[in-house]
Amino acid sequence: MGPARGSSILSNGVKIGVMGAGVFGAYHAAKFASHSSADLAAVFDLDSGRAESLAAKYGAQASRDVDDFLQSVDAVVVTAPATSHFELVDLALRAGRHVFVEKPITLDVDQADDLIKRAREMEVILQVGHQERYVFDAVGLLAREKSPLKIDCVRCGPTSGRCEDVSVVFDLMVHDIDLVRQITKSDIDTVTAEGDAGEVMADLTLANGAVVTMKASRLAEARDRRMSLVYDDGFIEFDFINRTVENSTPALLNEVFDCKDAPPALKDPLAYGADAFLQSIINGEPPHVSGEDGRDAVAWAVRIEEAAGLALRETKTLERMRA
User: Fold this and answer.
1) Assign residue 303 a region: left if phi > 0, alpha if psi is -120 to 50, beta otherwise?
2) Measured between alpha carbons, how far is 66 from 263 in angstroms, rounded to an integer?
3) Is 283 exposed, middle or buried (0-12, 13-18, 19+ CB in 10 A)?
4) Share of the chain above pLDDT 70, in %
5) Residues 138, 141, 145, 149: what is their CA dihedral angle, to the nearest 10 degrees?
């Protein structure tokens, strides 16, 4: 089965299929259903009731047969549990479908490399859902040539019952991992970490000398998502919940994320990522967050988990899909 390209995409919109009809699947479905260049065509989930409910909301087709599902779409958004990402993305890529996979791309570096290679062979787009990066780019932080000397990251909240197939490193901390990588353009030199599946503290020294602390928790009483960056010319502090930034550096930053004239990436990062995916498919542009970006975040997450003594859980899904 080859990639579904050509006049049908340009004239009728990119036929999008959502794999995973949970909370995040519903978020993504809403963005693509409202986009003028997309047609939300199908929803796949092992829970037929959940698939039918989400599909009906947008006039899409619900399916429990993965092969029929892939035949009906041009591109796939994978929002299923992280432990199934590799299998689902690999299946979609082998079918020649463009793929937008929520973070993390996989739970293993070698598997991420396999997916990147497969996407190249099939000449399709592979985009990873590190949406927080769009925020930092839009406020102008990624354009700074300076790297911070010290970074402190906090990403905590109460348990939600979601993403419990992986540790908090791959669930929450992976957001900050991607951001720190983009800001510093450096890699890990040393790492120490402690914690369990629900809460992890990590201390990193990067190859460029930057010192990074990361805390991620699904056990906190209240949501707290902040990042503090100390430069040789001042500091920048982000509050992701209140959507504000304090800045004492000479950098030009958008001080209020949701101000009236804020760019689209600040107002709705998820919608911005959906649009970026569609534009890559239609115009052949490289994805804003590539498979390689996702792979590099996985490499850091694996090192932090190993330092904390955590083990990943694995599951097989394809057999159940075709059962």
Assistant:
1) alpha
2) 37
3) exposed
4) 90
5) -160
Residues 75, 81: Cα–Cα separation, whole Å: 19
Contact present, 141 and 70 (Cβ < 8 Å): no
Predicted TM-score of the model (pTM)? 0.91
**Closest by Cα among 20, 22, 313 to 169:** 313
The DSSP output letter for 261 is T
The whole-number average pLDDT for the span 179-198 is 97
SS3 string, 121-134, reads: HHCCCEEEECCHHH
Q: Tens of pLDDT along 155-172?
A: 999 987 777 889 999 999
User: Average pLDDT of 72-85?
Assistant: 96
> What DSSP line would sit under 23-86, residue for residue?
HHHHHHHHHHHT-TTEEEEEEE-SSHHHHHHHHHHHTPEEES-HHHHHHT-SEEEE-S-GGGHH
Euclidean distance between CA atoms 45 and 54, whole angstroms: 10
- Among residues 15, 19, 17, the alpha carbon closest in space to that of 4 is found at 15
Residues sharing a CB contact under 8 Å with residue 241, sequence separation 6 or more, in sequence order: 223, 224, 225
d(CA 263, CA 139): 9
State the amino acid at position 314 in one-letter form. Answer: E
Strand 61-63 to 211-217 pairing: unpaired
The partner residues of 192 in beta bridges, in order of sequence, read 203
